[in-house]
Automatic annotation (TrEMBL):
Residues 255-350 form the MULE transposase domain. The lineage of its organism: Eukaryota, Metazoa, Ecdysozoa, Arthropoda, Crustacea. It holds the Pfam family MULE. This is MULE transposase domain-containing protein.
Amino acid sequence: IRIIFRDQVTLFSIRLHFVKNFASTILLQPLYRIAFVFCDLNQDKRPPCEVIEVWLESLTLHIAEGAAIPQVFLIDIYTYTGTYFLANVWRVEEKFISFFPALRCRKNKHYACLARLTMSGERFFMKGHHSHANEENEIARIAVENDCKRRAAEQPVRPRMISEQTRQEHPNAVIGFGSNLERAIQRARRRLQPVIPHSFDEAERTITGSDMYRKTLNQSADFFHGRVSTDTGNAFIFISLALLPEIRTTREIRSDGTFKTVPNLFYELFTLHVLAYGKSFPVAYVLMSNKTAELYRIAIDRILQILQEVNPGNHFEVEVLISDFKLAIMGTKQQAFPNARSRGCWFHYAQAIYRRACKELQRAYRSVGVIRSIVKKLIALTLLPSNRAYEGFQTIRHRTENALLAENPQSRAGVAR
């Protein structure tokens, strides 16, 4: 591209930022808004530009195919010497950029700006003058936002991290990380993602067909390790191969399940953790359509099968298996590790005691000290040796008996139940 300012020819390179990627035949695609660059930031006033002539000799784009046509995009033009020129944002009045018939300032309505760009042959001519200040801040903001969207399509990192990386490259842009920018980044990322599957077969094809879902974050190993099924359910298994061998050397294996943060096709996210280096690490994630003992069994069998492929052997040092109090999980893990001892999770036990107390004693628990003390002491019973748990329970009863007499009959009845 060559732009002439009063017979002074300057060579420029061009960079394109798109809200949406689209097919590489840009000269045949309808466009709606475009930003040109005419003002030097190093000067306080605009350079003279009554007549601007532009020759488009060649334009090479690297754009993903199959996406929708963009609504807005920005062209940044740099000189080879690094001088950055800015201008106002223009809108293409005709539908196809290949004709380039006329451009008008986007503030022609609010500011009655009469500036126009018209094309004759392969040259642009500027008519009129802008009635407002240059939009350096707005163009810089659009550049940051579009760069964030481009990064979102290329990097599987959090929106805030994308924003911080982009702002470091645009130090003069006045834009912060807010809800609008976060939504724009998420929308740009969703446009490149496949449609939400409506069946287990579609979900499996989506995962296996995309490295972003099938592999780990650094793309170094497979993360998805297949689907197992029973007559009534399906389970998708994801495993960290780097941590999987720890199952052979750990002395404690923990498991948990959550039901709120799962896709619509599934009922539960079951996770398996190992205790290593004094910390608990998740080794496997299993998306399950139901929580039957048979589905738990074949899911754990699949995990152990992958372990045998990665780290062959029959030796395990597992001594304790911790989970919630679902019999299906406890029984399945006991079958997989027969030499270990199953235990319920103290957190789930405490949660069950608290929920039971809140059924009839929620108000009393918050306002009456003795009720709250009884509930907390019942939770602490599990910290006693098993042969002294009943003794501790009787001690709680005797020491709180007199204090309960001062409470209302409803509270005493709730504690008794």
